[in-house]
Write a structure and sequence with these properties.
This protein is an alpha+beta fold and 68 residues long. It has a domain of 40 residues. Helices cover 16% and strands 29% of the residues. It has two helices and three strands. Strand 2 and strand 3 form a beta hairpin. The radius of gyration is 16 Å and the shape is globular. The two termini are 24 Å apart. The model has no long low-confidence stretch (mean pLDDT 84).
Length: 68
């Protein structure tokens, strides 16, 4: 995970296609704007905890069993 510090109205660009803008910071809440191609699914993790599917080669149970 890459962790970046940003201030209000600053942006992060990912792969030239996704633009993340820090819209507002207030107390412990941060409003984030996301511009991305319509083909990309963007959801809040608390709504769809299974939306994030990391590379299966890194997360397979067989690989975990092999390490133990």
């Amino acid at each position: 995970m890459l962790v970046l510090s940003r201030k209000g109205n600053q942006r992060i660009i990912i792969d030239g296609q996704i633009r993340i803008t820090i819209v507002e910071c207030s107390g412990s809440t941060v409003k984030v704007g996301i511009e991305a191609p319509q083909s990309m699914k963007i959801v809040r993790e608390e709504i769809d905890p299974w939306a994030y599917q990391p590379d299966a080669a890194h997360q397979s149970s067989a690989a975990v069993r092999h390490l133990t």
